[in-house]
Amino acid sequence: MHVLDIVQNSIKAKAALVTVTFYRDEKGVLTFTVQDDGCGMSPEFLRKVTDPFTTTRTTRKVGLGIPMLQQSAEMAGGTFAISSKEGVGTSLKATFDLHNIDCIPMGDICDSLLTLVVLNPDSPEFVFVADAPGSHASFDTRAVREALGGVPLNEPDVCEWIKSSINEEFKPILEVSI
């Protein structure tokens, strides 16, 4: 859920490109980053963005996505950092010790990545990268779009191809027993 929520923030910030990366090291530490070229945040807003009562939403007075990601990372013996510059974009990084008893299950990240593409077929562009010792996976909607020559990314046959492509490349890296 963290992946979907954080990337949704990038989409709301009118990002044209969102890059989501995962790096699992040999010790079982997972680093998750999201980088976008959206509108960015003011220094004042950035200082309080981890407070659950800070939000840009108008429908409710709480914003739990970033605070919950920070809490999940820190409970799992990891770290959390966010930087942003107005007019440039935002970068978020969280690490998780996958061996830590308080590390919440990751869920099906491959389905989350597919969901991002299928539900946002026109914009933004997505780059997904996963690395682990001896393994690398990447997926770039710009390359897929170019190869398809105008066929929508949410066309059923294209969705099925994207799903199998992401699963084939990313599952061996992201869904391993630690």
Overall description:
- This protein has 178 residues and is of the alpha+beta class.
- It has one domain: Heat Shock Protein 90 (2-Layer Sandwich).
- The chain has six helices and six strands; from the N terminus they run H-E-E-H-H-E-E-H-E-E-H-H.
- The protein starts with a helix and ends with a helix.
- CATH-defined topology: Heat Shock Protein 90
The proportion of residues in beta strands is 25-35%
The rounded distance between the terminal residues' Cα atoms is 21 Å
| Number of distinct helices | 6
Structural class: alpha+beta
Uncertain parts: none
Can you tell me the CATH class? Alpha Beta
Q: Indicate the percent of residues in helices.
A: 25-40%
- Order of SSEs: HEEHHEEHEEHH
* Count of structural domains: 1
The CATH architecture is: 2-Layer Sandwich
The largest sheet, given as strand count, sense and whether it forms a barrel, is:
6 strands, mixed
Radius of gyration: 16 Å
Give the strand order, joined by hyphens, for the main sheet.
3-4-2-1-5-6
Mean pLDDT: 91
Tell me the overall shape. Answer: globular
Count the E strands.
6
